Every structure is written in structure tokens, then in C-alpha cells.
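Collaborator request, handled under Task 6.
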Amino acid sequence: MEDKNDVKLYIYDLSQGMANLMSAALLGHHIEGIWHTAVVVFGKEYFYGATGIQFCEPKNTHKIEGGTVLGQPLKIEKLGDTSVPYGIFKDYLRGLSDSTFKGSRYNLLQHNCNTFSEDLSQFLCGIGIPKYIIDLPQNILSTPIGQAFSPLLDSLYNNSEHFAFEPRVESGRDTSPDLEDLNNQIEEARLHSLALDEQRRKIQEKIAKKEKKEKKSKKQKNLSTPDDSNSNMSEQNNGSEIPRNGNNGNISDEILDNAARESFEEERKHREPPVVFKDIDPKVELDELVRLLDGKISKEEEGSVEELHQYLIEDEGSWTLSDNFLVFVKRVLEDPSLAQDSKVRLIRVLACAALKDDIVLLLHQDRRDHVLTNYSQDIDKHTLEEQQAWGLFICNLFENVSSSEWLLYISEWAYNNQQISNIRATTKVAVHCLLAADKTLQDIGSSIMHNLGIMEVKTVVFDDVAVELTMAILQFFNSKAEEEQIFRTLKALHRFVMTSPDVGQFVQMIGPHPVIFKGSSKRVDELVTEITKKVPVP
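C-alpha cells returned to the collaborator:
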């Protein structure tokens, strides 16, 4: 059973009550406070400011925790539980501290402590922090009452009791910091690919080249002297063989592969396999994309294409995809001067990338601009070929737990005068594909529905969309569908029936009842029986 850890949000009022008392007189309207937030998990309080990501030990004073110079938090809210291992959490923070949440990127109005808390909450729990904190108006923070608290912020972030989130080495240790860091980089690149900076890229490239050379050497050795133990011993003594333990910083392929397998197996334990599409050749798609874009993109954009090649063809980690990669994606998807087929080819390349276990890092880069999710929301505005390719991309994101959870995030933002979220955009794609006249889209839509049905998430995630998904499934039942698609959609319906009491009522009132599929196959019959227990035949 996975270990769970509490995740709490500490909410401080920077005005120490002044905003609540004086805001109406100073601003013309009342506000409760000027908010600073921190996330408490794994026994530490994490927050972000002008000096970067920091943490401190939460104190327990008068039964209220909190250890910053702001004193006690005004409120403590539980965000949820997380099963993210502490080691992965540390790696994630290190990546953020070197990229999105560098101290130099801090901005009081647009990229602040609350932005960081939102990111961390999404990563740990799949939900955001309260909306009233995120929506704190800029015109309040930019007023004299808001700016008056800058010295307090400086005091908070520069307090000597806090620590910047960087790898720290205790004095007197014999282990080389470079060696320890190198081993950590290898593990994270192979298992979770959380390295985002240039130093880690160089380290991984060096290790990859060394491993390829050593594998080739081993293969040649085994072919030439497969049974000569004395020859093998001689080569070991000359340092040609990688040690089977971790001494001297070398980790054998066997250890790495076993660690990777254990990690991935742990993620997939008790998880039904999703329906994904693996019959896309990334090399063919990428070569065609290069041909279509030749001479039509900038040198920097050509670099993004090369990053794709390294990620997909050379099997490097997602750290090869720079911060500007999504800018390139947006340009290709939206620029009318580029050939229509270039959009399709790029999306099909992304569908290949979606199958990789570290694709979630690219998805998290899209937090600010929502390029990918907004494109999902507009799926009905795209050409048929784009819709088919995009459906494959969304469906393939269910291959791994982390990326499938990203598809169901419920935090909202404004787009085209409406509030949308990851799960609403995912629902839009699922419904549109399932109810399309095109058979290929129907197949993709039924696959996405199936994958939604097997997700192990909290019931609240489906609260707003379960009825919409059910309505689409019931409408699909009126068409002539193959057994495979019937099974997939019944799988989803069974989940929604168990999730929402409204779903059962819709099935009974609108129909058709799934009993019409009785006799299609054994697995369909089993699902019909289970659904009928919850929703009797009218």
C-alpha cells in the first residue's frame, strides 16, 4: 500500500489585519487580507520569494504550526494527501529552483509565493490552492497598502533560519559532492527525468556515451571469448568491466534497469492497462515534419526540432526540451502560413512523446500559457486530420500515471470568456471524438472514455463532468458500435454510475439501458450485470 503524506496550505496575512480593518477606507472596497502562502509537507514549510525556493521547520506553538517571521498563519487548510515519494519531491523542487522558480524570476504581482504554492499543490495533490488567493487583484498589491509590505517580505525571505532549496553537503563528509550529485542525476534522468538545466544535460550525455561504448565493448568481448573466464578476469582487472556495485560512481546497467522496472511496476501496480496507440513511427513523422518546415522556421525553432529528435529518436530525457519548446509548438499549431500537414505531423510526433514516462515535465511547463489544454478545448474548430492526431495525443497521455493525472487537474482559468480546466478540456476531447461521424475519431473517443473509467482518482474529480460524459456514452449507445467500443464505454459508464448518483438517474430516464448489449460477450455481460445492480432496468 502506498504511503500517504498530508499536504497543508499555510495562509498568512501580510497586512497583519490592517487590510481587513482599513481596506474599505483606503481602496474603496473591503478585502480580508494580503495573502502569503506556503506549503507544508514532509515536515517542512516550503515557500518562494526573491531569493528562490526556501524552507523552514514548522514550529508547534499553542497547537498552531508555523515557523516564519510572519508568526502564526491566519489559516491552515488541508490540500489533500500525496503519495509522491520524498526523493521525487526533492528532485522536482531542485528542477523548479533552477528554472521556473529561480529567485531572479520572482515578481510580487505576477509570479510570487502563491504561484509557487499553486504549482506545488498541483504536483502533490492534483488540485490548486483556493481561488480567492490566486485571484488577489493586482491593483491591490500595486497600491501603497500593498507595496508597504515589501520590507516584511524581504525580512521573510532573507531570514537566516530559512534555507534555500539547493543540494547541501554537511561538513566533514568524505563523499564527493560531485559524485553524489552525479549519481542522483543518473537516477532521475533514467527514472523520472527531472533534470532541467544545462549541467544535468551534459552529465547525462556523458553517461549515455560512456554506457554505449561499454555495452559495445562487452558485446564484442562476449562474441570473441564467450567461455574464457580467464580472459574476462583479465579485462576486469584492467578496469574494462563496470563494477556491479555503486563504487567509484559507476552504476551498472543491470542495477539501473532493475531500479527503473521496480519504479514503473510500482506505479502500475493494481492499475488496469489503458488503451493507447503505439503504432506511430516517430522517425517517419519527424522526418516529414522537418521536410514541411524546411526554410520556414527560425534557427531557434530548428533547435526545437532537434530537441524533439534527441527526445524521441535518441531516447534522451525530457530535459532536452527547452523552455522555448512550447513556444515553437504554439507557432506551428497557430501560424496559418505553415502547411496544414505540418500541424498534423507535429501532433503525431507529440502523440509518440506522450507514451514516454517523463512527458509530464513538458506538461507542467504549460502551466502558464495552457497551449496544449486550450488546443484541446478548441478541438471542434480543427481539421479532421488534426482532430484525429490530437485525439491520439490525449489518449496516449494515459499511458503513465503522472500524465494521466495531469489530464484531470481541476484548477480553472479563463479562456475565450469561459472558465476551463484540464479535466474540462479532456472531457471536451472525449465527448467530441466519441460522437463524431468519423469512425477513427469514434474509436479514439471510446479509448479515452475507457481510460477515464479506469483512473484511480478521488470521486470529486468527476463531480462536474460525470453527467456530461454519461450523456455522450448514452448517445453513442444509439449507434452501431463494435464489441470493443461497447466494452470500453461500458467500462467508463460503470465508473460514473459508481461515482455520481445523478448518472444512474440519467441512465434510467434517458436510456438506452446497457442491458441492450447483453449477450455481446462475456466481459460485456459482466459489466452490464454490475451496472444493473446500481441502475435497475426500468
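The cover message to the collaborator said: "Residues 248 and 329 are 42 Å apart (CA to CA). The chain is about 55% helix and 10% strand. Please let us know whether this matches your experimental observations."
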